[in-house]
Amino acid sequence: MPIIALRPDKVRQRTSQCRKPSGWLGRVSLWSMNRRHSKLTDWGLARVAIAAGDTILDVGCGGGRTVAKLAAQAPAGRVYGIDYSPDSVMVSRRTNQDAIAAGRVSIDEASVAALPFASDTFDLVTGVETHFWWGESLGGGMREVFRVLRPGGRLLFIAEFYNGGRHARYAERLGALTGMAALDPEQHRSLFTNAGFTDVRVVDDAPRGWICALGTKPKE
Ligand SMILES: C[S@@+](CC[C@H](N)C(=O)[O-])C[C@H]1O[C@@H](n2cnc3c(N)ncnc32)[C@H](O)[C@@H]1O
């Protein structure tokens, strides 16, 4: 990965379209991420059982491909996506236009720091390649996803940017340049545990450089 040799301003310029996609370049990034994150997403989603009638939220939904995958796995349920980028919302709505028309999917503009949902709503919340961008909202975002999950509901984060695996050499440097939170597997575990989740499981596929973290909101 030659990113380490890039000038800091160029690195920041490139990564800003992943942090909050905007304009035509943002839309190109979203279409590209829909393609590039697909295998990683499938790998992570395979760790969690999804029932046909589940109510699911994908936070930082980007171009909406994860929402489409979730809607296919929960054909009798309902899937919501939120993203704080208006362009992500637009691309995600286009990706899911048929399911939206059928009343099975909704996509809205919102930050993880203030989710526009009632407490105890979702069976599952997912976040793919997003939590390391939340910066100062990371703690508040964890509190919000915990709040909107129903007791017994699960949170799943899936990412390939983390401090470990084949990206370990770059993660710290890239984090310092961009503000991305390069958490290691143990820090992912603490993030979930400190937010109140139980049955926390972190899967680190070091050769591929993929990580997922899964936790359950206790039933009381
Ligand atoms: C790298 S993209 C990943 C998009 C998508 N999940 C995927 O896997 O292709 C990160 C997304 O998270 C969104 N995001 C970052 N911070 C956010 C926040 N605090 N609240 C809501 N969305 C956020 C960005 O706007 C962007 O669309």
List strands and helices in order, with pairings.
Layout: H1 8-19, H2 23-36, H3 38-45, E1 55-59, H4 65-73, E2 78-83, H5 86-95, H6 97-101, E3 105-109, E4 122-128, H7 138-148, E5 149-159, H8 168-178, H9 185-194, E6 198-205, E7 210-216
The chain binds S-adenosylmethionine (SAM).
Residues 18-21, 33-34, 37, 60-63, 66, 83-85, 88, 111-112, 128-130, 133-134, 137 line the site of S-adenosylmethionine (SAM).
Structural summary, described in words:
- The protein is α/β, with parallel strands linked by helices and about 220 residues long.
- It has one domain (about 1-215): Vaccinia Virus protein VP39 (Rossmann fold, 3-Layer(aba) Sandwich), CATH 3.40.50.
- It has nine helices and seven strands, in the order αααβαβααββαβααββ.
- Strand 6 (about 200-205) and strand 7 form a beta hairpin.
- The longest helix has 14 residues, at about 25-35.
- The N and C termini lie far apart (about 45 Å).
- The relative contact order is 0.15.
- The structure holds S-adenosylmethionine.
- S-adenosylmethionine binds near residues 21 and 84.
